[in-house]
Amino acid sequence: MKVTDTRIPGLKLIEPAVFGDARGFFLESYNAARFREAGLNHVYVQDNHSLSVDAGVLRGLHYQLNPKAQTKLVRVTAGAVYDVVVDIRRGSPTYGQWQSFILSASNKRHLLVPKGCAHGFCTLVPNTEVQYKVDEFYSPEHDRGIAWNDPTLGIDWPVSAPILSEKDSKHPPLAEADNNFVYEG
Questions:
Q1: Among 51, 67, 108, 130, which residue carries the largest CB count within 10 Å?
Q2: Catalytic residue chosen out of the listed positions 63, 82, 110, 132
Q3: Where is this site: Participates in a stacking interaction with the thymidine ring of dTDP-4-oxo-6-deoxyglucose (predicted)?
């Protein structure tokens, strides 16, 4: 397993060891001991799985407020996504900045999204499945989001008219969003 730091503090790109032959492949999508060895000591309590039937489905930008904030371990098991993480921790050297990644069933990459970051993705192909582990249970009263098209963020999404849920179409810009995150370096 290869773990790469990104520009956003705490955001990690993880590339699992993949063993393939003519029959297909095998990989460990999660191994607590290997993750601990890499300094990733999260205890996951919930697995989530989404299917987006169409290309151009945009989900996000989501997060949960403290004390129910979540670290997410995200991967794609079918299809491909343009995955975006926005640092919303006040005082962070990358506050309000975003970083994007292509996650796909073929590249098998994972993202570790730290607490205090908003997360979203846009499907690049039909029938895309995203699976992610979280270290805190879903809490509707702490659930929040940021507008996918917030002009101050300037995210370069691969679509201009995405397919959105009603909820995701109503998120405020970062400057108006509920946010109780402070960067702890």
A1: 130
A2: 132
A3: 138
